[in-house]
Design a protein that fits this description.
Pfam families: CN_hydrolase. This is N-carbamoyl-D-amino-acid hydrolase. Keywords: Hydrolase. The protein is of the alpha/beta class. It has a single domain, classed as 4-Layer Sandwich (Nitrilase/N-carbamoyl-D-aminoacid amidohydrolase). It contains eight helices and 15 strands. The strands form three sheets. Strands 1, 2, 3, 4, 5, 6 and 15 form a seven-stranded mixed beta sheet that branches. A six-stranded mixed beta sheet has the order 7-8-9-10-13-14, with helices on one face. The radius of gyration is 19 Å and the shape is globular. It binds 3-methyl-2-ureido-butyric acid.
Length: about 300
Amino acid sequence: MSRNLVIAAAQLGPIPRAESRSSVVIRMMQLMEKAASRGAELVVFPELALTTFFPRWYLQDQKDIDAFFETQMPSEETQPLFEAAIRLGLSFSFGYAEKTQDAKGETRRFNTSVLVGPSGEVLLKYRKIHLPGHSDHEIWRPFQHLEKRYFEVGDLGFPVAEALGGRIGMCICNDRRWPETFRILGLQRAELVLLGYNTPVHYPPAPDHDHLQDFHNHLSMQAGAYQNGAWVVGVAKAGHEEGCDLIGGSCIIAPTGEIAAKCVTLGDEVIVVECDLDRCREIQDNIFNFAAHRQPDQYGLLVEKA
Ligand code: CDV
């Protein structure tokens, strides 16, 4: 099997609260068609791709909250996405709010992403571990960020799958800011990390950093790629959504940390790069050869509670 994988980052522009899933699915299918016409084999969509970014609202009625969650994947509304991918022979990944029941019958809610193969089969599932924001209504904020209220910390760890001719891991939005995320994937010899994000330009607890949002986005992802010798595909939901500006800057990053392609709008946009997974060796066998140079005996503090 070829070690070249043609990957598309499919950025989504704003999704208003009133936009239906079916309408978003049509937009995603249009991006898939565009990506396929440019030779893409894998299309990567953002975090919580099917709806507006609902943690910006303090919702009290569980029915209103659950309206943003998926209880089935695929569902009637998302089935066309899976069918389009099968028809186009594409794999794709995307994020969604997952409501499920555990073995004890308890309801669980996660911020989830899945990687779907070209036959419509789920190859990998990840549930977001670093949930940013807060749990209670904080009225001083111009908008809320209630991920800690609506989701539980993911319970699947950071899995890596042998898939599409390489080793693939995923993370979601805030996870990308934590070096531990990329290192855990790197220790499993991930060659490709797929991630989606919804990042407001305005960060209410530290507004002095608003002008640095794009810089911090790329800084985190480029460092993660380089320090672990992996391709990283970071995909935004971007633009002015329900009064909140979200950064764009979706990009495909080489294992050297260089940005190979980047979106230039804040709307629906596709970029495509032919990614040679063997290029991971340039980094993983040399400067970040873990077996030769890492000193885990000295890193005990890293896994102690702060
Ligand atoms: N969706 C996110 O995880 N957003 C956070 C914001 C709140 C800082 C992020 O890390 O981009």
